[in-house]
Design brief:
Elements (H helix, E strand, L loop, with lengths): L6 H17 L9 E3 L27 E7 L6 E6 L4 E5 L4 H13 L7 E10 L17 E9 L3 E4 L12 H12 L10 E6 L2 E6 L22 H6 L3 E4 L3 E4 L13 H8 L8 E2 H11 L4 H9 L5 H19 L2
Parallel strand pairs: 1-9, 2-5
Antiparallel strand pairs: 2-3, 3-4, 4-6, 5-6, 7-8, 8-9, 10-11, 11-12
């Protein structure tokens, strides 16, 4: 007697087949090359004051409000300059550290967004009310201490630290070390982006604002990002074995965040990103970082308009940490 297949079973099988077929590359389609790191042959001459966008892309001219961006935890909105380029404006305490971090990441061969810090930005057509950050906007559409990110990139999706084409490679391990170097603790997968560039898919950490403060989410928020005193006191390396290194960042959040159990325990899982890094991989990226001159490192902090004293002190912490890596 023939066995009757239920509509549910047939539907399930058809769904699986459809998924399998859709996952195969299209006939004749060009293969996609995944790119995480490119050797920075010109590292000694890279300009960390202007960063990956260079001097040619420095925001200039008049800016007009386009829309508010409600994604993420920081107030943001989009503007268009007089040349037709769109910029995402980020307000608040992440503006300075993200500007610096993008330059250091790019300097050693990883991709980064074109970020610029603007101490005074005038925006035409600023609405009377925004959902977030209204208290950070002055009269007449003037905004102080903001980060502008060029919006020309074509985002193709997100990538995950534990499921990516680079797992186990020195390039991915090196990126983890750079995140520990700058104390970037907010390494959620949603902060990783894939950008389409011709036949290449560029993998990058696209949100670097939670850097240069505590090694983990801290309270008050001013300790967690762009805080020189906290960054100077923070521990860089947790443990070294003959084969591996455990870095402090990303560290578990302050216990005060237990009031939000879902958030707290999701961040506990991030600790593993900075653990069990092969010593040879940590030393490899340390050797690349050591090719940066003190002036280049200082320029990265100058680009974010830190005071001369703060810029010099931040740069000295970076230099000390690089020396630790090269001695591994």
């Amino acid at each position: 007697m023939p066995v009757r297949k239920s509509p549910l079973t047939i539907g399930f099988l058809l769904s699986v087949c459809a998924w399998f077929v859709s996952s195969l590359p299209a006939y004749g389609a060009a293969a996609q090359t995944a790119v995480l790191w490119r050797a920075p042959a010109d590292i000694a001459s890279r300009n960390l004051y202007y960063g990956p966008g260079g001097r040619k892309d420095v925001p200039r001219g008049t800016f007009t409000f386009v829309k508010e961006d409600l994604q993420g935890s920081n107030p943001k909105f989009v503007v268009r300059d007089q040349y037709g380029h769109k910029w995402k404006v980020k307000l608040g305490i992440e503006a300075r550290p993200e500007t610096v971090a993008s330059r250091l990441v790019w300097a050693v061969g990883y991709s980064a967004n074109e970020d610029y810090f603007v101490s005074n930005l005038h925006v035409q057509g600023m609405p009377a009310h925004l959902h977030r950050g209204r208290n950070l906007i002055g009269p007449g559409g003037w905004v102080r201490n903001v980060r502008l990110k060029l919006e020309d990139e074509k985002k193709a999706g997100h990538w995950r630290w534990r499921h990516d084409p680079f797992t186990g490679t020195r390039e991915l391990n090196g990126l983890k070390v750079v995140m520990a170097l700058i104390n970037n603790w907010d390494l959620k997968d949603v902060n990783n982006a894939i950008y389409q560039d011709g036949d290449a898919q560029i993998y990058m950490v696209s949100d670097l604002g939670a850097s240069f403060g505590a090694a983990g989410r801290a309270w008050p928020r001013q300790k967690a990002k762009g805080n020189l005193e906290v960054y100077e006191r923070s521990r860089f390396i947790r443990k070294v074995t003959p084969l591996d290194v455990d870095f402090e960042a990303p560290a578990r959040p302050s216990l005060i965040y237990v009031v939000n159990p879902k958030e707290y325990f999701s961040r506990l899982r991030l600790e593993s990103i900075g653990r069990n890094i092969p010593r040879q991989d940590a030393r490899w990226i340390g050797d690349w970082l050591a090719r940066l001159s003190p002036k280049q490192i200082l320029d990265a902090f100058r680009a974010a308009d830190y005071s001369p004293r703060e810029a010099a002190a931040f740069a000295q912490v970076i230099e000390r940490r690089i020396a630790v890596l090269t001695d591994l």
